Amino acid sequence: MRTVTYFFIFLNLSLAVFEEPAVYPLPFLVTSLVEVVCLLVFFGRLTHFAKVTFRDTFWKDTKNICIMVAILLSLTDLAIYGILRIYNVSSIRWSRIVRPVFLINFAESRQIRRAFRSIRNTLPEITYVFLLFMFSLLMFSLMALKLFGERNLRTAEGLPYFKNYLEIVFDLYVLVTTANSPDVMMPAFDFSSWYALFFIAFVIVNTYIFMSLFLAVVYNNYKKHLKVMFEEVDCD
Hints:
0% strand; TPC2 protein; transmembrane helix; monoatomic ion channel activity
């Protein structure tokens, strides 16, 4: 049963590759039939679990309620999407976002739920580091606006360089990943090579220091919560 459940969960999640907009598009009838089969299997698995569980216990378990709601939402969305498609009305399959619910909430996914719960418990504790990072990003963006906003610089495409504060925030946020380096620096560097020091300082502070600190906090807190969770399981 565990193998069958995982197979149909994987099949259900894989439909995103074949549904519009798709990497390998398949006819809507094919993908919808596969999804209906998957949902029927999930409903059968849930029904089987209800047969071997006390009724009060079954309905008090939020995991079962989540699966039931996800099945109903998926079927409703599939029916609405199919009807709109018949009348050539464009729409979006909004129920795709509930598909991971099946992966998390089935009884066979106990280890996945533990990992998910550890991530959820870790989030509040990394908020302070994230806020410090955002403060640093906003302050560097403000300095960039003051440094380059009045220089009348242009990008390689001829667009104004560092004129809009929100665009600066986004460009420097991307620079944290170094995805736009050194392109984002070149207009300022061409104006004066000394301006490279600003971008070097930004990368050192935000990419190397803050990202390392952020990763360390996430790892340590996640490991702590996971350890506590396994200790509680052993005690039970």
